[in-house]
Each structure stands twice: as structure tokens, then as C-alpha cells.
Design brief:
By secondary structure, the protein is mainly alpha-helical. Helix content is about 65%, strand content about 0%. The radius of gyration is 14 Å and the shape is globular.
Length: about 100
């Protein structure tokens, strides 16, 4: 249990850094807001919703130049972003599929 909780805490910390990275970039923030449909004043509230932090990491992962710039600026290995995504709620492929 401790290992899973620790992994989730680390993943959340990375996602929060990624959110700060996106929010500080005048080109990325409007794109993020447009894709997510979130208004800038609602980000803080949305950040508490299940799946939001996973969505931030999905946004970073969806564009390789953004991923590489985030990795370089934060000293984060690019593979760590995908690993963090899988540790967050709604960040994995383990969901029910209809048959």
C-alpha cells in the first residue's frame, strides 16, 4: 500500500509541475484550455477533480516537442511522464469495455 501511495504522490507532484509549466507558457495555456474546455478561472477547482491531473499529463504527452521541452526544463526523464500518468486516477487503460 505504501508503494502505491508513494507512486501516486510522486505522480501528482509531477502533474502539478506539468500544470505550472503549461500555465506559464503563453502558447500552451490557450491550447490546453481550448482542448479541455476549462476556463482559466476554473483551473484551481478543476485540479481537484478525478482525472484532471492525468489529463494534464496526457496533454504533455500528446505533443512530443512539448514533452521534450517539459522534460528539459524540469529535469524529468520523458518516460517518467508516462509512468506518472499510469499512477493517477483515470490515467491508465484499465477500464471496462462494452462487448
Amino acid at each position: 500500500m505504501t508503494n502505491a501511495a508513494s507512486m501516486r504522490e510522486e505522480a501528482e507532484a509531477l502533474a502539478i509541475r506539468a500544470l505550472g509549466f503549461v500555465a506559464a507558457d503563453p502558447e500552451l495555456l490557450p491550447r490546453f484550455l481550448a482542448i479541455t474546455g476549462i476556463e482559466a478561472h476554473s483551473i484551481r477547482r478543476a485540479a481537484g477533480e478525478p482525472g484532471f491531473l492525468a489529463g494534464v499529463l496526457q496533454f504533455i504527452l500528446a505533443h512530443e516537442p512539448t514533452l521534450l521541452r517539459f522534460a528539459e526544463e524540469t529535469g524529468t526523464p520523458p518516460a517518467a511522464v508516462g509512468k506518472a500518468l499510469r499512477a493517477l486516477p483515470l490515467g491508465n487503460d484499465d477500464h471496462e469495455r462494452s462487448v
